Amino acid sequence: MAILGSIIKGVIDIKDSFTSEPNHIENQENVLKQLLETAKDTQFGKYYLFEGILNADNISEAFARQVPYFDYNSINDAWWSKLHKGETNVTWPGSPSYFALSSGTTGKTSKRIPVTDEMISAIRDAGIKQVFALSNFDLPADFFEKEMMMLGSSTDLDEKESHKEGEISGISASNIPSWFKSYYKPGEDIAQIDDWDERVEAIVKRAKEWDIGALSGIPSWIELMLQEVIKHHNLNNIHEIWPNLQVYTSGGVAFGPYEKSFNALMGKPITVIDTYLASEGYIATQVRPETDAMQLNTDNGIYFEFVPFKPEYINEDGSLTQDAPALTLRDVELDQDYVLIISTVSGAWRYLIGDTIEFTDVKRAEIKITGRTKFFLNTVGSQLSVNKMDTAIRELEEEFDIKIPEYTICAKRGEDDEFYHFWYLGTDAENTDNKALSEALDTSLKNANKNYKVARTKALHGVKVNTVPPSKFHDWNGKNKKKGGQVKMERVMGEDKFAEWEAFVS
Q: What's the pLDDT tens digit per position in 188-217?
């Protein structure tokens, strides 16, 4: 009898029974007021007249009129760069305790995103919310006695004069509550190893000592770690060494593209729970098993706005035009892609996080990640978003009975000076028929996207497919950025980056 597990499960169930469904619209109105009130005397708050916004009849409308959209480059150049010169009270009171380093999916140079103590607290509270939501997933009591493998970036943060720097997953892991440390694996010593391959090697060697009940991390890097454990211990699947593994919390990217390859490493089905932790904050988490959508954390230090994802509102570099309309949670609709805009307790204001989402349930504030603004492929009018590409890849997997966990695409002219979409698919399948894959991919996209279908009758001449092992994508990330952590593969490349990619592959 799992006595401790029964007690923990009982506490979670009791907490859930006394928790009513939140009013997400009211939560957001309160969060915006708190953000503005707290930051009104900062340099940013004075410049954009937060005091006046707080006195407006409609605060959200006044806020949208008064404060422009920012992406990382614009807010860093105008404001956050002051923090590195020793200035305080810039976009948030005081100085941040951490900076999250993020190269994301777009380049070698790390962004340095402020992470305040208030944000650390907000992330911790969102994590507790996720734990309490486990009561909805009908897990057995003994699950709550098992260990949890959190595979993020190194917790060995760089010490600077007045702050520490590292990736957000490393920052979060270095701030886990003391009561959780006995459950946390791979443990503090291994988590501090900076080199990804060395860290995985240490995990592999000690894997038999642990009784892992849950995994957490970005799918591509979790898969690599599991493959190494399976290979080293000569297993058929990961459940032969961790028989009590029951839950995987994904994060950072949509899980769909990895589902088939991930399940191939399992010996039995497990519960997959999606989460959305970005360098800028803990955005959302899945709270119920009836859907794989995630609920926005509407009461936890982040104010959300939503810009309809349409070509006329997106600049060539993926930023927003300043006349793009922003909607609040009160105004959004189903079946519409939105660019996600956030204002946070770390001093990000009307900040373009770079992701696009759609609502699956407006009342519950539940969303799915649909792509990246910079991965919107509109060359010659094709208007392809990442979710359309992901769906086409899933159809290829089913039709050809192969696994394709990674891919990238570029629109450019071929040798005949006509425009093509050049795809590289990551698969270990042997003897693939690239011509057949090209034709099937083209057909799938025509059926899913009328704009793509029209483009194919005009300037877009066709599709060309090459297949390479998935390891090529992991090695590319290791060469250009850093393995593990929050690093994700760029799904759409410009011509210059794609030329580097093709040279690397060959």
A: 888 888 888 898 999 999 999 999 999 988
- Residues in the chain, total: 506
Half-sphere exposure of residue 80, counting CA atoms within 13 Å on the CB side? 23
Model confidence over 240-275: pLDDT tens digits? 999 999 999 887 676 777 888 899 999 999 999 988
Amino acid at 222: I
Peptide bond into 186 cis (omega under 30): yes
Q: Is 418 helix (H, G, I), strand (E, B) or coil?
A: coil
Side-by-side strand order, sheet with 366-372 = 184-185, 147-150, 212-216, 247-251, 271-278, 281-285, 294-296, 366-372, 351-361, 338-344, 302-308
Residue 105 in this model has a pLDDT that exceeds 60:
no
- Are 22 and 68 a contacting pair, CB within 8 Å? no
The tokens describing 340, both together, are: 């996600």
Per-domain residue ranges for the chain?
Answer: 1-372, 377-505
> Where in 34-144 does DSSP place strands (E)?
98-102, 111-115
Beta strand pairing call for 351-361 and 281-285? unpaired
Does pTM top 0.85 for this prediction?
no
Instruction: Give burial (CB, 10 Å; 0-12/13-18/19+) of 160.
Output: exposed
- The number of helices, as runs of H, and strands, as runs of E, in the chain is 17, 18
CB 61 within 8 A of CB 29: no
Residues 318 and 373 sit within 8 Å (Cβ to Cβ)? yes
Q: CB–CB of 429/295 below 8 Å?
A: no
Domain covering 1-372, topology: Rossmann fold (3.40.50)
Q: 360: buried, middle or exposed (CB in 10 Å: 19+, 13-18, 0-12)? A: middle
1.10.8, 3.30.300, 1.10.1760, 1.10.1060: CATH of 377-505: 3.30.300
